[in-house]
Amino acid sequence: MTPLMTWLDDRTGFRSVMHEALYERVPGGARWRYVWGSTLVFVFMLQVITGFMLWMFYSPNTRGAWESVYYIQHEVYLGDIVRGLHHYAAQAMVVLIGIHLIQVVIDGAYRAPREINFWLGIILLNIVLGLSLTGYLLPWDQKGYYATRVTTNIVSSAPVIGPAAQILAQGGPQYGHLTLTRFFAMHAGILPTLLVAFLALHIYCFRRQGLKVADENHAPETTFWPDQVLKDAVACLGVLAVLLLFAVFRGAELGAPADPVVKFDAARPEWYYLFLFRFLRFHAVESLGVTFGAIIVPGVIMGILAAMPLTAKFLGESGHRINKVFTWGMTAVIVALTALAIVEDQADVNHQSAIAEAAREAHRAHELASGPDGIPAGGAMEMMRNDPFAQGPRLFAKHCASCHRWNGHNGRGVIVLDRREDEKPGGGSYDPKRFKSYTAVPTAADLGNFGTRDWMRGVILDYSEHFAWLKNAQWYTDSDDDRLDPDVSEMAEWSGDNDALTAPENVADVDAVIEFLVAETGREDLALDTEKVARGRAIAVDGDWSLESCATCHGTIGQDFVAVDTDDTYGYPTLAKYGSASWLKDFIRNPDAERHYGAKNRMPAYSAEKLGDAELDLLVRWITHDYPESRVEDYPGMLDRLRQVLESEESGSPVVSDQ
Length: 659
Fold this sequence. Notes:
It contains 28 helices and four strands. With 659 residues, it is mainly α. It folds into three domains: 23-265, Cytochrome Bc1 Complex, Chain C, CATH 1.20.810.10; 268-347, no CATH class; 453-628, no CATH class. The strands form two sheets. A two-stranded antiparallel ribbon has the order 1-2. The chain is elongated, with a radius of gyration of 34 Å. The chain starts with a helix and ends in an 8-residue tail after the last helix.
């Protein structure tokens, strides 16, 4: 090898370059506190390597970004590890550059003649923050999409150039394909190029001026190789180990695909921007505007940092002490605001519900993408928009939860609130942020178990309790029509005959009728006992029972549902395919038709203008559980909690009034 190395050195002079790089003086000896610059360079190189790997699979367009990231995460060999390393290395860069900045200020390494190198470091800090912001959008999931929209809106608040800068970053006045491609260009091209250029200048200036140490007498002078190199290598290995642990055991998150139509209440910036997010939420800052909180204040802080060399130059040691106090104070404020934001979010029931919903939809998106049908040609957003399991709760909350509940909540795992204006102190203007909310009382049946055996059993054996929520409605209070009363209507009287219905000789027949009614719904997720179904049909339709059969009043029971008025209803709601998709769609569209409630109806009709055919189909399929099987955990039931809260509020000592 010696002749080869000699020949190579003769042509390139690499030995002198290596000697210059490795045998730099380290006054005071090698120390662990000097490793932060090297770890930063190491993490950046890790970012570059993993970034190129991800680039090989990533598709920067709105119909392929989420899909390609999903492919990386679930299909590419070790793709989840590579993406996890890239994700957590980005966060590590922010932490490491913050530690490096603190160390530089403490050691006075920003003072003359190192001012230019310090200013280059400030520029590098802003480039790193820019890389974090631009990379957040690239998965094109809900979290990144909405968080980045907030960011670009903040950019628009900058004086003079704000609106133009926002349009430039977005690729136009609206979010879309050009937004993604521009952020990708900045993240993978412009900002890394700038970082490499300024990093080269930073290292050049650092080598020219030499290492600034706080105590040259700490230990005997040594050289960069081998003592400091060993410490740097161990530190880099430690950072890599931590990043690998996160990548393997926690992984990088991929939420549901971005959908501009879907409101995303769980949007938050990454944790290292939470301090700014919390700062902007202070009432005093809000009153001064976004420009003050997000542009002026951070700009002033960056200006103070940039002025530190001048402060130390003109004020001497006093200026240096001021700079150190400011740096530690700024660090303490950032840590405190970050902790405050995390604690408040954990205590915010609405935010936690939004996080649970976001996790549910993300898991469902992954489940559908990995299913037999995979991601359709229209993309992952179309896949989610056409999924009843994902869209049903949202449609229920929008159209049904004003009266009904779903296992006690609004379909999306949240107890419905009612802000009462009569609670306004002094009768001033109504500000929903200032006045107490009360749990809204349901005024129609809870539909969480609609069409199941429990639902049918409640209708037959406990009709009054099953529909008791109706008595909270204003129409019930104002009405003197006993036919609408869950307690004294004909059905209530028939269901209330517990002595006959629960008699030992009738128990099996009641179970058979319930099984028959469940079979009429056509639900494929409920296994049926065919013998019970046949017996139930004989009882309900043919009257093969000692008690009064269903057909006595509901003459259409057992028939195919046809959405036309018929004399066979005898003035009672039709039970033809009761609870089926066809029955339910017609009932939602025409609840006041004679085949349903006629003149007795109190439910608003949902026309195609109010609830489109596609939305109606998704809602009904969700209610009837007609969707691809899911292993995603559903929202927990809140019926008991709802009753507890309503009772406590009625007694004047509410257990919960802010959920």
